[in-house]
Amino acid sequence: MGNRILLVEDEKNIARFIELELRHEGFDVVHHISGRGGFEAAKSLEFDVVLLDVMLPELNGIEVCRRIRSFSQIPILLITARDAVMDRVAGLDAGADDYIVKPFAIEELLARIRSVLRRTSKVTEETSVLEFKKITIDTTAHRVEVSQIGIDLTKTEYDLLVYLIQQKNRVVTRDLILENVWGYLADIETNVVDVYIRHLRSKLPQEAASYIETVRGVGYVMRE
Fold first, then answer.
1. Is 149 exposed, middle or buried (0-12, 13-18, 19+ CB in 10 A)?
2. I want to staple 130 with a disulfide (CB 3.0 to 4.6 A). Which of 87, 99, 137, 159 is the partner?
3. 10 is in which domain, residue-wise?
């Protein structure tokens, strides 16, 4: 079998369709219909990706995401309703790596799954250590330190920080960030980037908050 995916979706028709398509593509799929069941599966079994609906019985997807993030950095892809913008923002705040909006084409879902898998497996070969002011990133160990103190980042936060440091002194647009961090040109709200920039700033010490500079109307830059 290929990569193992945890699918947490209570709508039977949608879940069956997704499961059949994923299995056809070679994925190993474990399906749960409740938030609590999905969370318990995530705690007890190893998965490569979690596909998580927001509207679930027992525990909603946002809470499941938050709880999974307390012990794992596994990529989480939220499944949300078209008009649920606040759910998407809340999900990203809870630590989700990406989201897909219903109704969606299976090709789009597969592209997003492959993207997060590529990001997870990607190893920086050029150098094993990146440094920027007080920040040190060991890309082999996937460890980030500020003044020799480790900080916990989600996979997407880590990828974003690495990308910004690799592009230091260069202003990068939100579209460039989406393309290089998410791995594709996504038709999603550009405020996703802003949400993750806010996450990074909150996790870095206050003295380092200005490391990520906003260039109004353009994007972001980390200047030495």
1. exposed
2. 137
3. 4-121
